[in-house]
Amino acid sequence: MSDAPRVLVGVEVHLQLKTTTKCFSPSAYHYGADPNTLIDPVVMGLPGALPVLNREAVRLAIRTGLALGCEIAEVTKWDRKNYFYPDLPKGYQISQFDQPLCFDGGIEIDDDEGNPKRVRIRRAHLEEDTGKSTHDEGGNKSRVDLNRAGAPLLEIVSEPDMTSAGEAERYLNALREIVSFLGTSDGNMQEGNLRCEPNVNVIFANGDKTAIVEVKNINSVRNMGRAIECEVERQTREYHEHGRVMGNTPRSTRGWDDVNGTTVHQRFKESADDYRYFPEPDLPPLHIERRYVEAERADLPELPRARRTRYRDTLGLSAYDTEILTAGPAISAWFERALAGPTGARDAKLVANWVQGELMRHLNEQKASLEDVALQPEELGELVDLVTAGTINARTAKELFRELVVSGGSPAAIVEARGLAQVSDRGAVEAAVRAAMERHAQAVEDFRGGNAKARGRIFGEAMKELKGQGDPKQVNEVLTELLG
Amino acid sequence: MLGAFTPFGADHPLDLPVAAMAARVRDKDDALTAVELVQTALLRIELLDPGLNAFLCVTGELGLAQAAAVDAKVQAGEDPGPLAGVPLAVKDNLAVPGAPMTCASKILEGYSPPTWATSVERAIGAGACVVGKTNLDEFAMGSSTENSAFGPSRNPYDPARVPGGSSGGSAAAVAAGMAPLALGSDTGGSIRQPAALCGIVGLKPTYGRVSRSGLVAFASSLDQVGPMARSAADARALLQAIAGTDPLDATTRPMPALEPDESTRLDGLRYGTVTEFGLDGVPGGEQAQAAVNGVRATLDAAGASSVAISLPLVTSSIPVYYIVAPAEASSNLARYDGVRYGRRAEDVDSLQALYARTRDEGFGDEVKRRILIGTFALSSGYADAYYKKAMAARTRLREQFDAAFEQCDVLLSATTPTAAFGVGEKADDPLAMYLCDILTVAANLAGIPAISIPCGMTTDGLPLGLQLWGRPGSEGQLLDVAERIAEASGHGYVAPSVKGAE
Amino acid sequence: MDIDETLVRHVAQLARLELTDAEVAGIAPQLSRIFAHVDQVQGLDVGDADPATQSPIAMDDLRRDEAGPTLDPRAVLRNAPQHDGAFLVVPRFLGDVEDGEG
């Protein structure tokens, strides 16, 4: 056992699920609407309005839970969490207390040494979001917008398995990446559809532990890391200077101060919060058939971490190519489609070269996204096949790519229609080389006189004679032969 | 009856059975129109209600417009529905857009709902015409309609007495002939108890039979909307109109049909008498017990057989109910916070003060009492001893009812231990008031249907009610049995001699 | 269960009810009397009965994710005690008033 203090970090994530309507009512939700326009009687908490659970919210929650390695409850229920807050319209939040939808999961991340490490996920439950309040600076009013109220949230609670800010950042990034590959959430922290609250404490070699601190108001992955570093330092200092430990110091909540890069005390959790949970009587319990869960599981895409391992270890791609081709769900799916040939997978390195090379260059130059590209991944695959088969040469392929990327179309059909296929008939190549040598007798003479450069002119002329469709290797061979 | 007034009379169409009334409206050749029925009801309300305070709001314009629409349909040869032109009184905890909804509370001051309660909407769809919103105990919490911020309602049989509650306004409106049909809500007896005290029929459906959408929640796992009427047949007509699953209420479930079964006979009926519901030794319970015994004699003479049933947990139903209902209520009433709608306390400079003062000013004493009871029963350190224990007891109680219905077709008891008590008599004793529900709350806890029907009068001329309890989904059968009992016993609605504006 | 004035005040705070001293003094004995009756539930032998009051429903019974009608924002605000034409307005607050105990 090392004498260095151990840091324990757990992370609570609130993930907004990508549904059309709210969790318990049919009003739409999207970010950035005018205040109080995405409202219905349930969202407003009008007298007599009743919640009705959105099937898609449950499906996305199950999907996410499965991807996080969780068990899915056979029977789950919702509970009321009672507290008063202006952005909580009913005076209670519909949440899940003792029978969460997903539980006992975990995901793999890299630890600080780069070794794989599993972070356990205690539970992930489906609940409704609150509205948003803004506060007058120096004024005496607060303003409430209920648009966000009722949006479906998956609250994902990890065990305190992370031992550094870096691990916590990698955990959060892994989570974001998973949900973006699943398509269950936008995972955008700026728009608040992913929010995180780390809880931090430190254990010293002698067994002393600092009180757990939960940090709120964090708006980026990096700031979560900074907040954790800041807490470790602060708690260690408080321990050494004032002997503050769990037992003489209550658990507390602190807020991240982005401007000063520090955490600020908000409140102590002296007594357990009295939320008076009880089962939501307006919603019957939900039975989730096992075959439903298995169907969702079978439909899960390959997750980014597994895909990376496969690209590196099975496909033999470089670390660089792997990174680029798994950077997001769209590019990765594009690559996968280009890779899948009609008779089995294509050569991954060849396809990877095209995607990370020509395609990415085009996107960067045009500041375009994949959706703007007319070329379909299957069409790129066909192009690769034409090159591999020797039907067209690399130059023709690149020219064709530049055309296809804006117009799309079948490369094989175009090659056929325009007669772009490579000339590989020995006789035709010989004729072309002889013609070039005749036309450039001077160059032939120069070459034979020792001017090596002159050879290039004859080669170029021979290629021109072949309308660019000669196989350069073959042309070279013939030229060498004939020049003697 | 006050035969001298035009809206009254021996054979006035407004006093017909609902089916006959609607049939006349639907008959193109009959001069009787929906508008005429609604006008009559409005006139009766104008004359009688000042003495009864059954209505918090009269919706004449709305009711007449609905009636005109019914008449137009008749003229056009379209079907206006089985309740065509029948005036309907609606308890003021059900949403009717265009009319204020107060729940008899100051806290909903100025509130008007934007959408219809499903039950009301369905009744209107069947041709009913809403003539007004009726008085209740604030947020349906009470058994006398005295806990109304707008004054108590009065019993049409004796205005010095309460009509029962919390659907006291609806009960008084039907009993006094101001509306042939009314909607009430029943959380612990709030339809059946006032129906009994006002000598009419009131039915609490199986939980999940009728949508609660648009019913202001008191205790969500107990609340049901139900019909109040002058006869079981009328109650059935209204229940048929409002029942059915609703995409806006996830707790509604498909249930057996409600059509009358002409083959139902008292001969061979097995009725259970619950030992724990006996009124021997209950102060003032002799007359109610005698009335029940009278009906039993009729049943036995008709060939029914009685089975003695014991439901031990019924003796705990009041404590269980007074934990579960306030617990849910404390949460349901949290939304009245002065932020989005309704009343807000003036001159508050902090959020804390806004909440606390708004709720202090807006809620009446009984509502506050129940919020405190419920908050306490759910609070940290006490929830296991109270709320969880009560919920477990509730499950066991339901099991005891299931077992009872293995042995008999229906259970039979009084609806209330006594007839209507005087206004103010129990106002200072909340516990005594709570004990009024002793014969009704178990049906809500178990989620089963129960109906109260008239079964005679006390020596003072006050109505008494008989209660029939059935297994889940058996409302059709309960109504059949209720009709047979009325035929065999001769008991039924007897119009009170209410004094109008004189 | 004896409900004293301290407990009444604690519960009233949880329930956001501002009670006067007189109200607290009046309600405490009433609640004590009610709980003397209600306390009999604690002696009931009901075992570990499932507290669920409803049988479970299935995934197919849930609402489809299709947008329905929303409320007219002007109508929403018209019912509000205070608003600025877009937002609901309350006295300024910061921090976690949900835990107003502290």
Q: Summarize the biggest pleated sheet of chain A.
A: 9 strands, mixed
Strand line-up in the sheet with most strands of chain B = 1-3-2-4-6-5-10-11-9-7-8
- Estimate the global geometry of chain A from the Cα principal axes: elongated
Radius of gyration of chain A: 31 Å
Spatially, the strands of the biggest sheet of chain A line up as: 2-6-7-10-1-11-12-13-14
Strand portion of chain A? 15-25%
Helix coverage percent of chain B: 25-40%
* Rg calc of chain B: 21 Å
* Count of discrete alpha- or pi-helical segments spanning 4 or more residues of chain A: 16
**How far from one another are the termini of chain A?**
77 Å
- Biggest interface, CB < 8 A: B-C, 64 and 51 residues
Number of domains of chain A: 3
Mean pLDDT of chain B: 95
Oligomer class: heterotrimer
Order of helices and strands of chain B: HHEHEHEHEHEEHEHEHHHHEHHEEH
Number of strands of chain A: 18
What is the number of strand segments of chain B?
A: 11
Give the uncertain stretches of chain A in residue-range form.
none
Shape assignment of chain B: globular
Strand content of chain B: 5-15%
Structural summary, described in words:
The complex is a heterotrimer of chains A (484), B (502) and C (102). By secondary structure, chain A is an alpha+beta fold. Chain A contains 16 helices and 18 strands. Chain A folds into 3 domains: 6-287, no CATH class; 302-418, no CATH class; 426-483, Orthogonal Bundle (Arc Repressor Mutant, subunit A), CATH 1.10.10. Chain A has helices at residues 41-44, 55-67, 165-182, 221-242, 290-298, 304-313, 319-325, 329-339, 348-366, 377-388, 394-407, 411-418, 426-439, 441-448, 454-465, 472-483, and strands at 6-16, 71-72, 75-76, 79-82, 92-95, 102-110, 116-128, 132-135, 141-145, 152-158, 194-203, 213-216, 252-257, 262-268, 278-279, 286-287, 340-341, 344-345. In chain B, β10 (450-457) and β11 form a beta hairpin. Chain B is globular, with a radius of gyration of 21 Å. Chain B has 502 residues and is α/β, with parallel strands linked by helices. Chain B has a domain at 17-252: Amidase signature (AS) enzymes. Chain C has 102 residues and is mainly α. Chain C has a domain at 1-42: Orthogonal Bundle (Histone, subunit A). Helices cover 33% and strands 6% of the residues of chain C. β16 of chain A pairs parallel with β1 of chain C.
